[in-house]
Design brief:
The protein is of the alpha/beta class. It is built from twelve helices and 19 strands. It binds pyridoxal-5'-phosphate. The site of pyridoxal-5'-phosphate has 12 residues, from helix 9. Pyridoxal-5'-phosphate (PLP) binds next to helix 9.
């Protein structure tokens, strides 16, 4: 049986991209974001590949995601970016040797209720201006007191997150970095500031730890710095097939609402992928796909299981031909703009109908 939609993940691209990150930030240790099922790429195979490549730490959103990795016998350090929600979760996190990111005082209260023998590792997250998670910077002295009260705790470091790192001209990033450094002046412990955009575009954010996600999957978060130019290789190819090819007269409408009107007599291909697979319904006419290495273009609304494409530039296209939706030669970050979204959301939006294949696994 030929799968309708296949996501082929090249794990060697991930380890290659880890190498690119290490070259860009040679003095930083790398915490790789594998949350949200490794951005839809498959958390277990991705984490295994990164672990084999010597990543320093993996990062997930929550305990459940971390447990899935431990159950798959992944031994690498794992950080819980949102920390824990209860004493029970805290105890479990300690048992599983997870690093807990602590962003509020109620979480400290939870940790202080653990037995003093608990071998706890924690990061402290500071809000340097994004106003999502983190302690106010003015809390640093109080937090230093907390650490001093608990010499048995292992302190992994201070963390903050940048709000506008993907806008290289936005001075607020400089401001956030300066505020973070000033608040921590004299405070012992490693620092971590940069996500992918931070480490690619802001050299001053390449401190003790960097925390890339998207770049490891081979995408650039910065329109001004395409992934190819950075040496990043896309890890995923999303492919389907042509299941029908038809010719229509000028003026004929195609698909729901007849949104697309054929400007001339032309061939329309039907590809077996739709919004139930993760192909956003918001994609506009003109969104490119690749058939036989040439471009065809979305022509008509995305339906649940199918899309229709303008085949005028692929005269020899035939039923059964593979159709690349994104991947090498068709960067997901560029495709995403056709649905006014980001490659992050395209990847995370793939559904259970998509068949995943892995290659390039470490020996
Ligand atoms: C705290 C934190 N650090 C790092 C990352 C990785 O970000 P990116 O995928 O943009 O590199 C994320 C992702 O949202 C995050 O929330």
């Amino acid at each position: 049986m030929i799968p309708r939609v296949t996501a082929s993940v090249d794990l060697s691209a991930l380890t290659h991209n880890l190498g690119v990150v290490r070259r860009i930030a040679p003095r930083s240790r790398v915490m790789a974001a594998v949350k949200a099922d490794a951005y839809g790429h498959g958390a277990v195979p991705v984490s295994r590949a990164l672990e084999a490549a010597g990543v320093d730490t993996l990062a997930v959103a929550c305990l459940e995601e971390a447990m899935a990795l431990r159950q798959a016998r992944i031994q690498a350090p794992i950080a819980l970016l949102e920390g824990v929600m209860s004493g029970e979760e805290a105890a479990q996190a300690v048992y599983e040797r997870l690093q807990i990111v602590v962003h509020d005082h109620w979480q400290i209260d939870l940790l202080e209720r653990l037995p003093t023998s608990a071998r706890l590792t924690l990061w402290l997250k500071l809000d340097s201006g994004m106003h999502r998670l983190g302690f106010p910077l003015t809390d640093v002295p109080r937090l230093r007191d907390v650490l001093a009260r608990h010499p048995g705790w292992t302190f992994a470091g201070w963390m903050t997150h940048l709000a506008c790192a993907d806008e290289p001209d936005n001075a607020f990033t400089r401001e956030q970095i300066a505020r973070f450094e000033a608040a921590l002046s004299g405070a012992p412990g490693p620092r971590s500031i940069a996500n992918s955009a931070g480490l690619l575009a802001w050299p001053q954010a390449r401190v003790d730890w960097v925390r890339p996600g998207l770049a490891l999957y081979g995408c650039s978060p910065l329109p001004e710095m395409p992934a190819l130019g950075l040496g990043l290789r896309p890890a995923m190819r999303l492919e389907s097939r042509l299941i029908a090819v038809r010719e229509y007269a000028a003026g004929e409408g195609v698909g729901y609402g007849l949104r697309y009107r054929c400007p001339e007599r032309m061939r329309i291909g039907v590809v077996s992928v739709g919004y139930a697979d993760g192909m956003h319904r918001a994609f506009r006419d003109g969104t490119p796909v690749l058939v036989r290495g040439r471009r065809a273009y979305l022509a008509g609304r995305v339906s649940m299981d199918m899309i229709t494409v303008d085949l005028r530039e692929v005269a020899d296209a035939a039923v059964g031909d593979p159709v690349l939706l994104w991947g090498e030669g068709l960067p997901a970050e560029q495709i995403a703009t056709w649905a006014d979204t980001l490659s992050y959301e395209l990847f995370c939006g793939l559904t259970q109908r998509v068949r995943f294949r892995y290659r390039g696994a470490p020996a």
